[in-house]
Amino acid sequence: MPPPSELNIIDRIRRLAGPTTSRTLRLGIGDDCAILTPPPGHEILVTTDFSLENRHFRRDWHTPQSAGHRTLARGLSDLAAMGATPLAAFLSIALPVDYDPKWLDGYLKGLLALAKAHKVPLAGGDTAQAPGPHILADIVLLGHAPRGRSLRRSTARPGDKIYVTGPLGGSAAQLANLDFSSGPQTFPQPRLNLGQTLLRRKLATACIDLSDGLSTDLTHLCKASGVGAAIHSELIPIHPTATLTQALHGGEDYELLFTSAQKIPQSLATQIGEITDRKILLDNKTLKPQGWQHFTNN
């Protein structure tokens, strides 16, 4: 039996997504465009992320539910880093001509379960036939935040303390062990609520999500802010299954790295160092970015 047509796929997505209208989403799946209205005094934030088979997930490693969850989690983590509240998601997916409809159902259920948990309506997208045997997906996330108050990676200042919101290296450890049971590699949890707390309580001076690894993302933040950093290995919270190297360079932790002029309660985050006006240092030695970089890592 041939796989369902494009129209059948869209109908399936619409049924699984359920009603999508809300106070901020006036029109969702089914028309040429979605219609959104952010709350008064708020501005819209937009992010997009690819999820490419054999690059971001593998069908022989990740369940369909995990692949769908990970697709959405990547974009939600970007919104979390800026303190935004999700407004809507848009999924575009290209499938091989001989794709398995049961795999697609599982993928959508995984994505939509995470969307439901964070009250993110799926407002539209696109479907197409992939030019080869691999699945290609792109997620677009829209969020909103009070005008002019979004957290940024370019506003850290010397003297600020550096914090992370949870243990690092767990995702890399799972991947290294080819362990794809439930955990940070298979079902990462974006820190949306914490990002919104940092924004609402004015706790962070700068923020970035840890998707590419602590060493790389700290470098991104420092370069954007024109500052240096000194972090200390004994302060880094390391996942019980991970090594320090995995915590520093592994990536896909989706915790938040932020700076603050305040003393942050340990119930919210762990201090790992401080912002300086010099080099980026780990234990007084130069820390080179060795996390994920496309076109460099294989």
From TrEMBL:
Span of domain PurM-like N-terminal: 30-143
Domain PurM-like C-terminal, chain residue ranges per copy: 157-259
Organism from which the protein derives: Granulicella tundricola (strain ATCC BAA-1859 / DSM 23138 / MP5ACTX9)
General remark: Reaction mechanism of ThiL seems to utilize a direct, inline transfer of the gamma-phosphate of ATP to TMP rather than a phosphorylated enzyme intermediate.
Residues the entry annotates as binding substrate: H56, E252, W292
Entry protein name: Thiamine-monophosphate kinase
Residues engaged in binding ATP: G125, D126, R153, S211
Binding site for Mg(2+) 5: D212
